[in-house]
């Protein structure tokens, strides 16, 4: 089923304006590799990141945050406990939260943790095709953070995960897929340079959290997040001479992006 | 009480020259979010950062460092033990050290840790208005890393903390406040882009440590650090198109900054 | 003994082409300070970094990676266990791996860990002069990450370590030294800006792992890695106005570097 593009074309820029106006507090429990990028992309967008991830603090912050982002990239023992604490608080309070199941499938600790977290009904799950397939039990996942499957090969898995959580699933790739298990939306602004910097997916995960923190319709919020992020990336790529200057310019473009530009540039496939 | 501006106008550029000449070894026990930026700003300035933060090593390094920077942003169990070990070594040896009480107040682990560390007499405490108020017991702090109070609303709290530690307190904001409990200095070179990148405060905290590592008068050293950092930030902002290019240019400007430029550009409010 | 320059001049650009063609999966167990840079330099080069460093996952990933990079910069308890697990897997499977003994000598935890890891026969050891001397037992090492000895003062130590591991040792500095205990090669493209950004050595360590992951002759692979990295750095320095813009441009130049440019620019001393 396809949501009417006209509805989305209105909702996407409005959601961006809501993020700018509210400056949502986004708690991030994320990996040590790209935590700096996640914080900086949220700040550039106009959100307020807070990275408290330890048990004894994670639940407290989840109680006051507008949304929570949980990323399994480097799940140390304290982080695993903090993630469960935060996700339980979200589940109890009805707080929107995003799960990013980095490299689940081949690696044991995070695969077991992802199964526990999935029970706590993430508002959105964001991953690459291999991760979403692994989460659905379709197969054993990719090699590390790289998808070994195409986005469309994960459509059934994405729908299955969405049905299980009662939430939204988005699969990142050249075309981003967003589904709530029945409706499927494809956002076609992906740029290859996003795969040449580390954290291209993590940064999007944090941004999805910012959007679901202010916009109640989680499918629209996720589509808007994918659109805002990849439109900014497209514009950054035009000014870049390689992956280093691209990552820098991406922050500038996220800060510069306005609703009319987004409405004009976002493409649905 | 105001220290004579003429004294400060001489001391500030001289302190920068002392940092350049000595290349102080600054041990940093800091958060995983902005640790890279803290190291890079110190290197750009001409200092030598060393990030050993584990118990069993932290005290050893504090014994040979010129100054130590302790930042509570992501205080895991090992880091908490390492911070206490390093701060105790500093207290015993009379080594200058800087405490950055990130997000104390609402979050339990770091609030308890900050209370312990405060007993070990940090040479300088650097924070935003909400953190300094929480440290003084004035109120419960902000939401995460964002100050919900203006700098001037923290003046009494800053003086109270300075009196308690026998050291200096600096409150970061559009105008940076520096006090030893009696003298109050205000440095007015703050730039809004410093709040659009993560670690704007952490980087200053590391730089304060570099200055107190070479310049004996802690009030002058802290004023000089705030001046050097925010003057570099002002110059970076002129060349930036957003928060990404600003952060990159800030490193370049910290490396380029010389004493005459600093003397001319620093403003006292 | 000197390997014939003509052999190296052929091998170096060919090894770069092999990295580009294979996109080796490089597992990194590295420090929280520069982990983002290590991942980004590998991505820029065309390799696929994966940063799993926890016991229970580290050995699994080592079983499928093309090479493993172990860096002792911030060796928390979980990381120490993960490093041993990964290195044991490498030793058992004959998987190439690189040890980067950051700040060994003065600091106890990592010095003990380095001694254990050295028994697991790293394919390459990369460090600065003080670290290699400390590893060889020549003296107590530098202060933190800074070398207090010149590269040539570590030649005997480098050869001794290479003989002990049966592998290659490279000492980084203005001129990079590479030896297998008998042959000695010097690559003379080092640039001072590499010491003004944090992780200049760590990034090279990851790149050495990428090269030994695809090129069987470890001495040639290490020379090629040093050459590719420092030639990219030289080119980045020409476009930089300071350490911030240098680090950004370094990623762009690593991505742009091709085999003919490398062959022309690499210099043997």
UniProtKB/TrEMBL annotation, chains A, B, C:
| First-tier enzyme category under EC | transferase
Which parts of the chain span the membrane according to its record? none
Pathway where this protein functions? Cofactor biosynthesis; thiamine diphosphate biosynthesis; 4-methyl-5-(2-phosphoethyl)-thiazole from 5-(2-hydroxyethyl)-4-methylthiazole: step 1/1
Catalytic activity annotation: 5-(2-hydroxyethyl)-4-methylthiazole + ATP = 4-methyl-5-(2-phosphooxyethyl)-thiazole + ADP + H(+)
Q: Which InterPro entries does the UniProt entry name for this protein?
A: Hyethyz_kinase, Ribokinase-like
Give the family from UniProt: Belongs to the Thz kinase family.
Q: What does this protein do?
A: Catalyzes the phosphorylation of the hydroxyl group of 4-methyl-5-beta-hydroxyethylthiazole (THZ).
Mind telling me what this protein is named? Hydroxyethylthiazole kinase
**Organism, scientific name:** Flavimobilis rhizosphaerae
